Amino acid sequence: MRRPLTKSESALAEIGLMFLPGIPAYFWLWTHVTDTVWEKPANAFVYIYFITCILFIGLRRWSWNDIGINRHGIGFSLACGGVLIAARMFALACTNIPLAWQLTTLGRLLGEIFFYFALVGVGEELIFRGVLWRALEEWRGTRWAIWVTTLGFGIWHIGGRGMVGIAVGIFYGIFFAAIRWRAGGIIGLIVAHALIDLSTVAITPNVEMSYLLTQVQVVNSWLALLSEITFVGLLIYLWKAPRR
Length: 244
Description:
The model has no long low-confidence stretch (mean pLDDT 92). The protein has one domain (7-240). The chain has helices at 7-19, 22-33, 39-59, 74-93, 106-140, 142-156, 162-183, 187-203, 209-214, 221-240. The protein is built from ten helices and no strands. It is mainly alpha-helical. The radius of gyration is 18 Å and the shape is globular.
């Protein structure tokens, strides 16, 4: 007689089913809507779908507190997010990318604030550091929660960027996972995540991935070194910091 699935195992199975529509979306949807007027509405629809599904999966089994919606470590998460923003700004400023303020109209500014705070920050943190984290931690422990959510976060960013998107997602995913581990909640991470993305979009021109891979050069080695020191220093601190 087969053993019935635990709530963490059944949640992981449902999360897997939740991601199945991402396969045709990757091969068909994004190839047709990228760089068109439908790109933002399609993105919004996708995030609404995932937020709705992940809350349905999570709240049938756990409380809001269990999936990280609590007051634990909010200030800690925001402080770490601020360090990540600084490190990312140093990394951008050390290159020849022509940085300039991109959100030139009030409508676009408000639209991007809504998109990154209400959809990207909430959606991605609820999925990876919220319900998926809870299910993995309960099923196999914290190490599995850290590494599987980091890998999943990388794969999430494959669209339009390929292996570069995966690498960047994994890079930031390990920081977000470490913050989640130390903070004990995701509210601060939601805000920090949104601020990191929004601050980058606000000053970085929309350029092709081929340009980033072939034309971007480091023009200020001191800023590059400062960026590396900041990233590595934060990661070491997160590894050694006490859990909130």
